[in-house]
Amino acid sequence: MSGELPSGVQRDVALAPYLTIRAGGAAELFARARSAAQVVTLLAWAEAQGLPVAVLGSGSNLLVADAGVRGLVIKLGRELAKIEVHDTRIDCGGAARLPAIAARAARAGLAGIEFGVSIPGSVGGAVRMNAGAYGGELAEALDHVEIATAQGLARREASALRFGYRSSALASGSEIVTAACFRLREEDPEAIAARIARMRRSRHDAQPRGIKTFGSTFKNPSAELADGRSAGQLLEAAGCRGLAIGGARFSIKHANFIENTGGASTADILALIAEGRRRVQERFGIELETEVRTLGEIELP
Ligand SMILES: Cc1cc2nc3c(=O)[nH]c(=O)nc-3n(C[C@H](O)[C@H](O)[C@H](O)COP(=O)(O)OP(=O)(O)OC[C@H]3O[C@@H](n4cnc5c(N)ncnc54)[C@H](O)[C@@H]3O)c2cc1C
Hints:
By secondary structure, this protein is an alpha+beta fold. 28% of the residues lie in helices and 28% in strands. The chain has three domains: 9-78, Uridine Diphospho-n-acetylenolpyruvylglucosamine Reductase, domain 2, CATH 3.30.43.10; 80-192, Uridine Diphospho-n-acetylenolpyruvylglucosamine Reductase, domain 3, CATH 3.30.465; 208-295, UDP-N-acetylenolpyruvoylglucosamine reductase, C-terminal domain (Uridine Diphospho-n-acetylenolpyruvylglucosamine Reductase, domain 1), CATH 3.90.78. The chain contains eight helices and 19 strands. The strands form six sheets. It has a five-stranded antiparallel β-sheet with strand order 6-7-13-11-12. The longest helix is centred in the last third of the chain and has 19 residues, at 266-284. The model has no long low-confidence stretch (mean pLDDT 95). It binds flavin-adenine dinucleotide (FAD). The site of flavin-adenine dinucleotide has 32 residues, from β3, α3, β9, β13 and β15.
């Protein structure tokens, strides 16, 4: 790296406070971008310096290496969290949170994004992951996104993102979602609110609350492979519920959630992921695939 750091770029910033699992090391360089133009400037600077870049959304699906992350980690600032309703369209910044978008859409009598009400992620992370719940997923509601690269800002249609189950064709780090437009449909606000209330209740019954976690650890295997059983059911049957390594434990309430019970390192969490995977493989011959994403030098089991 040559010369001075651009304004707003800090050295050696701990990332655990930005992650819902509250574990892992620091970013060598960290910047909070306040505009889409600043994201482009940061990407161009990093490219000129030959630095790797990673982007952090709400940190609700991320595991960071204990040894930290080399290069620049960019987080989108509050300035990129706007949510605006225009007829049946909602325009959001890349840092807008899904529960806030779902609530705003419901108030405006717009249906199609209710599933986002209990997903604690940002628009950028949700696009990257094609986040979904209760049979809905982001791909169904998204019209287009604005993407920042080192070359500038560009519009990309949802159809070009090649969405799959918890996946998209966005390139890690070098393509950052700075805005998104959702196309929704008009419906009675009370009917939408009732659906959202049902989703909240079923979430409350099925999942632990107030714990440090990144949500589902593993993707659900295909129905024919697993006889319709979810990853959580397979883990539970393989004896993983409550299983702990160091400060990491498979949740007692939901076996596919790993929680940091205090002082967990990323190494503890990785060891637990490996053990869960090993037990399911041994018992059912099914290889679970992880849903959580990683930053830094981590090899997921
Ligand atoms: C309690 C709990 C419940 C959850 N329930 C669900 C659920 O029901 N359904 C579901 O799908 N997920 C669920 N999740 C997981 C998580 O909330 C989603 O995957 C969410 O979409 C991640 O968004 P994020 O902003 O937190 O992304 P992060 O965790 O910060 O990042 C995830 C990935 O997206 C990339 N990324 C982040 N921002 C951008 C951006 N602006 N541009 C490009 N790439 C970006 C990151 O580099 C990383 O690869 C849950 C998590 C928790 C903690």
